[in-house]
Amino acid sequence: MPFPRIVKSAPARRDEILDAAQRLFAGNGYDSTSVSQIIAAVGVSKGAFYHHFESKEDLVEALACRYARQTAALTEAELSDPTLDAFSKLAGFLGTMRRHKTETAAELRATFEPMFRAENLQLFERTQRAVTEVVRPILTRIIVEGVAEQTFDTPDPESAAETIMHLMTSNRELIVELYQTRDRLHFERLSQRLLDKMEYLGTVIDRILGLPEGSIELADRSALDALACALDRPPTAA
């Protein structure tokens, strides 16, 4: 007697495709993973795949958006805690993002490396827009609370959040070079340059929010050290 065909909802099927793509990207690398392999792993038709995604680039954008949502979900209890002031919520949110990146660094590098290729500026911009749509409302919410309780001093919380998001995604050229190098010494030099720049951007955000210099921490040595996971592997084809 044949087994009944399982019909899944569109969101469930979409997540199943994303799960398979993420596993294959992490295990084989983006370039070595084909759409056909993803389709085979899920067990769907090409038509079902292309109903949700037009290309592998669409998958990268959707995975980045999902990763941002998953990270945000880790902070929801903290962000909803009435005993915390807005600065504690902001510091907790930024800290959770850094820790999650460190914990998933190898998978992130394998999945999102295409974004940081010199020729893929359009993919990077698409992906950053998708992530911004997730993160900016959270930052705005925190800043609005901070202004109301006089923890932050800024006249336009929404513009402040937008500016902060722009600052946090302003390091693409340096990250492109960081991703492309296979020389450990060069990687260390680039890492230090990125850390120094992130420290400076933290002071800029302090000024935007009317905080004492040194309040906001963006730099994380451990996250960059974790990205060194690919230094001893051969580079993937562009």
TrEMBL record:
One of its GO terms (molecular function) is DNA-binding transcription factor activity. Residues 11-71 form the HTH tetR-type domain. The keyword Transcription regulation applies. Keywords: DNA-binding, Repressor, Transcription, Transcription regulation. InterPro entries: DNA-bd_HTH_TetR-type_CS (IPR023772), Homeodomain-like_sf (IPR009057), HTH-type_TetR-like_transc_reg (IPR050109), HTH_TetR (IPR001647). PANTHER family: HTH-TYPE TRANSCRIPTIONAL REGULATOR RUTR (PTHR30055), HTH-TYPE TRANSCRIPTIONAL REPRESSOR KSTR2 (PTHR30055:SF175). This is HTH tetR-type domain-containing protein. It comes from Devosia insulae DS-56.
